[in-house]
Amino acid sequence: MPVMERIQAEVDNHPIVLFMKGTPQFPMCGFSSRAVQALKAAGADSLHTINVLEEPEIRANLPRFSNWPTYPQLFIHGELIGGCDITLELFESGELQRIVAEALPQ
């Protein structure tokens, strides 16, 4: 499957997807770590993540797919939410909790 189709499939098939460096258990950058912490605190226990360090094709092509240059990248219901700063801002305002609650099956 071409990489752009694979990225689209990941985003389409999971309500919440975080493309990050490392894993939630072992994040490989501070921004990815903070994004995971905010998502978990917002109630996103069933978080689907993709380690871009182990997926060089995705790492190289995701910025073209999303028009967002940096990692992590958070997608909810197929839409790019943003990176670490936006995720943290949404968490602090309470918006992230609402978005996560709406995205996950009850």
TrEMBL record:
InterPro entries: Glutaredoxin, GRX_PICOT-like, Monothiol_GRX, Monothiol_GRX-rel, Thioredoxin-like_sf. Residues 16-81 form the Glutaredoxin domain. GO terms for molecular function: 2 iron, 2 sulfur cluster binding; disulfide oxidoreductase activity; metal ion binding. Keywords: 2Fe-2S, Iron, Iron-sulfur, Metal-binding, Redox-active center. [2Fe-2S] cluster binds at C29. Pfam families: Glutaredoxin. Belongs to the glutaredoxin family. Monothiol subfamily. This is Glutaredoxin. It comes from Pseudoxanthomonas wuyuanensis.
